[in-house]
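User: I'm putting together notes for a lab meeting next week and I want to include a structural view of one of the chains we've been expressing. I don't have a solved structure, so I'd like a prediction I can at least talk through. The sequence is below, exactly as it appears in our construct file.
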Amino acid sequence: MQFLVLVRTDVYLVLQDVAGARNLHADGVAYARWWLRRAARRPGRDPSLALPARERRAVRWYASLLVVGTAACLAAAVAVLGGSWAVWCWAWWRRHGRRLRSTLRRARRAVPVAGPAGHQSTGGR
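Assistant: Thanks for the context. Below is the predicted structure for the 125-residue chain, given as structure tokens.
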């Protein structure tokens, strides 16, 4: 869990110290937002230009790690939630499917079906 540098863990703090960055996370988020706005053709001023060259390289590297890591975490959450939902549906169907099918069959048989010229039939009985 310490290597999840998307949040401020001990490894994140070590990376920040090694990079010589004042606030690697905030600068990385600002750069990632700028990059996404630029990709959407809404350019603005690059926030990393105000940083020293060494810190700018670290922020750009961290921003790419931040975007990829966030996307991976979201994909994992969707997979886990989707998988949990699928398992729940499967278990529910195993428990209640037979009863539901028989109830639906009985309900179908009980509903009168209009025959030719408005005559009622009992649905094939």
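A couple of points you could mention at the meeting. The CA atoms of residues 18 and 28 lie 15 Å apart. The two ends are 65 Å apart (CA to CA).

User: Perfect, that's what I needed.
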